Structures are given as structure tokens and as C-alpha cells.
């Protein structure tokens, strides 16, 4: 490829890379698609990464796992009938058997709370919001007594209430937790149950302590008056259920600052980390006594009770899947106790990572020429960076906010630039094949494609076919430049077809000469026979070209064809700016000398003995000379083979010529001259003219060292 083309391509690739990395870098933090990709990567890490450690002896999850527990009624009656001393409050039994959780009397909850705490639990978190309801107020006194008895170790929920532009915290009924100021939302036995998803509806974070001001900012951040609306509540801090549990467990120091919403490390997939115990087992006096009291199963545990059955619709989408509300609260509590919060890099830090990645990718694209190597380097960088992200997330609780975008920069740049360069490589290959197709036959081209190394420099035994156009100067004078090129192109077309049809390779067109060969880049054992077939077809084609010329051109139109073989060096030759595949070696020079002799003998087709001995069916032929060509010391034996222009009585001429040539070789010059002259007179035979001329010279100047070999003094 020429340097200008390479430079232009390098500039193009650099521009493409610069555009890709610039768009990615500038779009970071602004383009929704990039934000979604980063969030997706964050969720992937949450799902596949390390999970928060869990002390299974620290938690007990009690769930309301059925709409009603009427089936338990019969089981309990059977146990009592069997002679157990346990008693059961018919009022409580009626509620859990006939009514759903939301309609249970507070006495049910009072009984449940008393049993949990009396069994030695560290604390009880009730993930249920109690409304002020006249029907259920009858049991509030009982629940209030239990909460007061174990305060502050029994925690019940408060909720966020919104109406138009007002937000407030609504605590439990005052009949359960009395308060002189009529606001029990800050009571140490109350925690906020409300949890908040992110903008995409996924729950990833927890709020443990916050003020009204920050609630306004969080819920109504899109309203310009949000900053003002919460000013009155800045100093009021509301702990959540999870925060209350962490405080009771002695881990208040692990809680994040007020209003901070940290990412939490989940304990496990939904329904796997916290096995559920049915609330009916606690309310069943027989099972409670045998399984929980006697076995001390609840001793020193954090117990959380909440809705578990699907009918309660307490579900939240998390990175790990759909999770029930109580289980999400347990994850929040465990994260606070273990300190498993995920720290996040700042936007400025993330942008530096993106910018550094963009610069690195751009520089490697511009200065690393091998795009395959660059692709694998990008792959290594991607895997290496992802490994760093993985280690930081799992071992250091640090989430890099720029994960997807750097990977997108690296891989999109690699894929796009590699695709462009692959297209260029394909185009270059097509151009190369088109170029090589002018030199190689289709069969050889197929082998070259399958084995590109065959074009490397090597020594090969080749068969050469050399031809030239005679009288090119007079032809050029008569035809002019345009006419001369036209006839040359006609000749080259004929030569190309003849060679290609016989699996030959084209070396070059040089002026009015034409060289082709067999045996490289792949071995061709049948090369001599293919070359002979090509030579004979070529002569037929040349006669057709001659036939369409004007008469004065026909008179001077001539050509010769020679076949020779030997060892040559073959391979790519040339300079960086221009390279071509071809032959180098003395065999080519020797073939050129033989081809030049076609004019000397007025023969159309000459074949060296090296070729002749390998021909399977040479056809009619005659040996016409043993000659030492110019620049050589060893004689070459030459044969003329019959071809399209040969006379019909070629056999007769060959037999007569043999007699003359044998006598010439034996030094019987007078007799040889006479016989050769007869062939000249009768058939205007070219080789016979040469014999006559040589015999005349040898008669005049006899040679004592004559051995039947003539030495040429000119080419």
C-alpha cells in the first residue's frame, strides 16, 4: 500500500476513535443510556458479587403466611384434647382463624409480643402499621402494656403521610403509645417503616435516619419550593425501624449519617437468607412452648414480624429480584449491624476514570498498527479493569460509578475501528487477489489463499515460456502510439488466455516481451506439458491477431516462442512503495537467449532439451542445433516442435534436415551444405539456412576442435 493511502487510513481511524471516545466521555452522566448501563452494571455486581455475612443465630423472621389460620384451629383442638395443659384465648383464636391480619385485634399482637419477649428475644420489630380503629381499640391497652413493659425493645411502625404539598410523620395510635404532645412518632419504641425506591423503581438503598426537610427533597425534588418546604423540620430526626433495631443491637456507630441513603450489600437472594417461621407457630401455645421456649430458639435474637403471604402485596423490586417488605427490612438491619454499606465514588472521580480511558484508547488506536493485537489489548484492559471493579466491590465495599462506560469506550472503539480496518483489509485482499489473478491461475490462487506463506522467497524448479513481438520498431512507426498499444493489448490478451487456460502464472509484460512460468508458488509436476499446450494455443491466438491487421502490418508482424526450465528464486520483490511477485535467476536469462534464437532460426517454437525430455507427447519435432548461447559455456540442445504454422510435410522436412544436421555435426560440411541448401530452395527452411551459412564459414575456415557445437557471439 502506498504511504499516502496508509497515512489517510491512519488519520481516518484516529478520527473515528476520537469521535467514539469523545461522545462516550461527554455523554457520561448525561446520556440516559449510559446511566442505565451503569445502573445495570451496579445491579449485576449486587446480584453476583459477595453477599453480606449473616449470623443465623441473630435473626428470626416471623411471617403472617396465610390470609387466615382456620386450619390451625382443628390442630390446636386436637392437641388440647390429647391432654395438654395449654389454654388458648378464644378471642385470639377467633381473630386469626376468621380474619385477615389487618383486622386482627391488638390483643393478638399483645399476646404475640409477650411470647416473643418472654422467650428471651433481644428485640421485636413489628413491620405492621397500626391504624386508629374503634373495633380494634379494645386490645390497644394490652398491646400498650406489653410495649411499655419491654420498652424500648418492642418497635412498631410509623409512616409518611402526604397531602398536596404537606408531608408529616404519622405515628401509631396514641392508645398504644401515649404522648403528652400528641405526637409519638419520635418515641423510642417507634420507627419509620417507609422505604423508598430509586427513580427506576428498584430498591437498592436504605434510609436509617432523616429529617422532614430531606423527606421533602427526596419526594418532591422536582419542585422548586422543596428546599423551603422542609425548613421547619431540619432539626427533627426520625429513625427507621432498621435504625432502631441496629441501635438496640449496639451497632449505632455503624449507621450512616442523617439523610444519607447508602447502597446496601444484600444478604442473599429473596426467600433464601432469612427462613420464615409462621406466626401461627408462636400463637399455638403447645408448639410455642416445645419449640421456642424449651429450645431457647428466640434467645438473644432480633425478631421481625411482618406480612409474608402474597395477598398482602408487600413486594419490592431489588437487584436480586422481587423481595418481600419484611425481608428487605431484615437486609437493612443486617447491613447496619455488619457495616456492609457500599461506598460510591464521586462524579468527578468517575469522570476522571472515563477521561483517562478515552485518552488511553485513543492513543493505542492511533499508535498501535496491528488491529488484532489492539483488539486483544482492549480485551485485556477490559478484563483487567473489570477485575479491579470486582475486587473493589467485594473486598473494599467500594463501587466505582464508571464501570460500563469505560468498558463501552474500550470495546466499542475496538469493535468499530476493527470493523473498519477489517473492511479495508477485505478490500485490500480483494485488490490483491485481483492483482495476483493477473499473474496466477485460479487453481494456484486458491492454493495461495490457503497457504499465504507460499509467496515467501524460495528456490523452485520452474518451466518458463518466453515470447516477444518482432519488428516492434517498424510496427510502432506504421501504427503510431495508439495503434501500437492497441495491438500490444491484443497480443497480451491472447497470451494471458493461453497461459491461464493451462494453469500458468504471468510474470510480467515488458515492452514487447512476455514471460510466464509453471512450478511456483506451488509445485507443478506437469508444468512442461502444460507449457507446451499453452505455447501451441498461443501461436494459434497470435495468428488470429495477425489475421485482423492491415496488410502492411501483416508483412512485418512476427513473434517467437521458447520453452526452457531450470532452478529460480521466486518470491515478492521490489521496494516498500512497489512490490510484485516474480522470478530471479540465470535460468531466465538463458530462456531469453533461446527465445532470441527463434528469430535467428526463423522458427516459431523452440524447446530446450531440459523441457523436451519431460514431455509426455511432444508430437512431431526435430533437433535443430547444439549451441552455446551468449554468456554461457555449456551447450544448449534445441528442438523445434510442430505447431499451427508448421508445414503439412513437417515429417519429411525433419527427416531431411536430420541428415544434413548429422553430417554438419560430424564435420562433413560440403555434404551437409548441399542437403541443407536443397531444403532452403524447396521450403525456405530457416534452420537449414543457418546450416548453410555455418558450413560455408567452416569450409572457408576449418576448425580442428570442431565437436558439432556452435558458439553464438551475439544474443
Layout of strands and helices, then pairs:
Blueprint: H1 3-27, H2 32-48, E1 59-64, H3 70-81, H4 90-98, H5 106-118, E2 123-126, H6 140-150, E3 154-163, E4 166-170, E5 190-192, E6 209-210, H7 212-219, H8 226-229, E7 238-239, H9 241-248, E8 263-264, E9 276-278, H10 279-283, H11 285-293, E10 302-307, E11 315-318, E12 321-324, H12 325-338, E13 341-344, H13 347-367, H14 371-396, E14 398-399, H15 404-436, H16 442-450, E15 458-470, H17 472-500, E16 505-510, E17 513-518, H18 527-547, H19 551-556, E18 558-574, E19 579-584, H20 586-601, E20 605-608, H21 609-612, E21 621-628, E22 636-641, H22 650-666, H23 669-683, H24 686-700, E23 710-711
Describe this structure in words.
The protein is of the alpha/beta class. The strands form five sheets. Strands 15, 16, 17, 18, 19, 20, 21, 22 and 23 form a nine-stranded mixed sheet that branches. Strands 1, 2, 3, 4, 5, 9 and 10 form a seven-stranded mixed sheet that branches. A hairpin with a 4-residue loop joins β18 (558-574) and β19 (579-584). α1 (3-27) packs antiparallel against α13, α22 (650-666) runs antiparallel to α23 (669-683) and α23 (669-683) runs antiparallel to α24.
Amino acid at each position: 500500500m502506498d504511504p499516502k493511502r496508509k497515512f489517510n487510513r491512519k488519520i481516518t481511524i484516529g478520527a473515528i476513535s476520537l469521535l467514539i471516545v469523545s461522545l462516550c466521555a461527554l455523554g457520561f452522566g448525561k446520556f440516559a443510556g449510559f446511566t442505565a448501563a451503569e445502573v445495570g452494571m451496579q445491579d449485576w455486581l449486587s446480584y453476583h458479587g459477595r453477599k453480606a455475612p449473616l449470623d443465623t443465630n441473630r435473626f428470626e423472621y416471623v411471617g403472617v403466611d396465610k390470609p387466615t389460620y382456620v386450619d390451625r384451629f382443628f390442630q390446636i383442638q386436637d392437641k388440647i384434647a390429647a391432654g395438654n395443659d395449654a389454654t388458648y384465648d378464644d378471642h385470639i383464636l377467633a381473630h386469626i382463624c376468621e380474619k385477615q391480619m389487618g383486622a386482627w385485634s391488638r390483643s393478638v399482637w399483645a399476646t404475640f409480643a409477650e411470647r416473643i419477649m418472654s422467650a428471651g428475644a433481644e428485640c421485636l420489630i413489628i413491620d405492621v402499621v397500626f391504624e386508629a380503629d374503634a373495633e380494634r381499640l379494645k386490645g390497644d391497652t394490652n398491646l400498650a402494656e406489653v410495649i411499655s413493659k419491654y420498652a424500648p425493645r418492642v418497635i412498631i411502625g410509623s409512616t409518611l403521610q402526604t397531602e398536596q404539598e404537606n408531608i408529616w410523620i404519622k405515628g401509631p395510635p396514641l392508645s398504644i403509645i401515649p404522648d403528652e404532645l400528641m405526637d409519638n412518632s419520635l418515641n423510642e419504641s417507634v420507627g419509620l417503616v417507609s422505604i423508598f425506591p430509586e427513580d427506576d423503581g428498584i430498591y437498592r438503598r436504605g434510609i436509617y435516619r432523616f429529617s422532614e426537610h430531606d423527606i421533602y427533597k427526596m419526594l418532591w425534588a422536582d419542585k422548586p419550593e422543596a428546599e423551603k418546604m422542609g425548613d421547619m423540620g431540619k432539626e427533627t430526626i426520625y429513625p427507621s425501624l432498621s435504625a432502631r433495631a441496629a441501635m438496640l443491637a449496639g451497632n449505632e456507630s455503624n449507621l450512616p449519617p442523617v439523610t444519607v441513603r447508602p447502597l446496601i450489600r444484600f444478604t442473599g437472594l429473596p426467600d433464601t437468607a432469612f427462613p420464615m417461621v409462621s406466626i401461627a407457630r408462636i400463637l399455638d401455645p403447645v408448639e410455642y412452648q416445645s419449640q421456642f421456649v424449651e429450645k431457647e430458639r428466640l434467645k438473644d435474637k432480633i425478631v421481625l414480624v411482618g406480612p409474608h403471604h402474597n395477598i398482602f402485596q408487600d413486594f419490592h423490586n431489588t437487584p436480586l429480584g422481587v423481595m418481600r417488605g419484611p425481608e428487605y427490612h431484615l437486609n437493612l438491619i443486617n447491613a447496619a449491624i455488619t457495616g456492609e454499606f457500599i461506598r460510591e465514588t464521586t462524579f468527578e472521580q468517575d469522570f476522571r476514570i472515563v477521561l483517562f480511558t478515552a485518552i488511553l484508547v485513543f492513543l493505542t488506536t492511533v499508535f498501535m498498527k496491528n488491529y488484532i493485537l489492539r483488539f486483544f489489548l482492549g480485551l485485556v484492559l477490559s478484563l483487567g479493569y473489570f477485575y479491579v471493579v470486582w475486587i473493589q466491590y467485594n473486598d473494599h465495599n467500594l463501587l466505582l460509578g464508571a464501570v460500563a462506560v469505560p468498558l463501552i469506550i474500550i470495546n466499542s472503539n475496538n469493535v468499530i475501528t476493527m470493523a473498519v480496518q477489517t473492511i479495508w483489509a477485505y478490500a485490500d485482499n480483494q485488490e490483491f487477489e485481483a492483482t495476483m489473478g493477473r499473474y496466477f491461475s485460479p487453481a494456484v490462487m486458491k492454493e495461495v489463499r490457503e497457504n499465504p506463506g507460499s509467496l515467501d522467497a524460495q528456490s523452485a524448479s520452474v518451466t518458463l515460456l518466453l515470447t516477444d513481438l518482432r519488428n516492434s520498431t517498424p510496427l510502432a512507426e506504421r501504427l503510431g502510439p495508439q495503434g501500437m498499444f492497441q495491438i500490444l493489448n491484443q497480443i497480451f490478451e491472447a497470451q494471458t488466455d493461453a497461459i491461464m487456460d493451462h494453469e500458468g502464472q504471468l510474470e510480467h509484460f515488458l515492452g514487447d516481451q512476455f514471460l510466464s512460468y509453471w512450478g511456483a508458488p506451488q509445485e507443478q509436476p506437469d508444468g512442461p506439458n502444460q507449457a507446451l499446450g499453452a505455447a501451441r494455443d498461443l501461436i494459434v491466438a497470435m495468428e488470429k491477431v495477425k489475421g485482423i491487421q492491415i496488410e502492411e502490418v501483416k508483412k512485418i508482424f512476427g513473434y517467437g516462442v521458447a520453452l526452457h526450465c531450470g532452478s529460480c528464486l521466486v518470491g515478492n520483490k521490489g521496494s516498500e512503495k512497489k512490490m510484485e511477485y516474480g522470478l530471479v535467476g540465470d535460468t531466465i536469462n538463458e530462456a531469453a537467449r533461446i527465445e532470441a534464437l527463434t528469430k535467428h532460426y526463423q522458427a516459431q517454437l523452440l524447446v530446450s532439451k531440459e523441457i523436451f525430455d519431460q514431455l509426455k507427447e511432444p508430437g512431431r519435432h526435430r533437433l535443430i542445433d547444439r549451441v552455446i548461447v551468449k554468456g554461457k559455456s555449456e551447450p544448449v540442445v534445441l528442438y523445434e516442435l510442430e505447431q499451427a504454422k508448421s508445414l503439412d510435410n513437417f515429417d519429411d522436412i525433419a527427416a531431411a534436415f536430420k541428415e544434413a544436421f548429422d553430417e554438419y555435426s560430424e564435420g562433413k560440411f560440403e555434404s551437409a551444405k548441399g542437403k541443407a541448401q536443397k531444403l532452403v530452395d524447396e521450403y525456405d527452411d530457416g534452420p537449414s539456412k543457418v546450416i548453410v551459412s555455418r558450413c560455408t564459414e567452416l569450409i572457408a575456415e576449418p576448425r580442428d576442435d570442431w565437436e558439432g557445437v556452435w558458439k553464438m557471439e551475439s544474443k
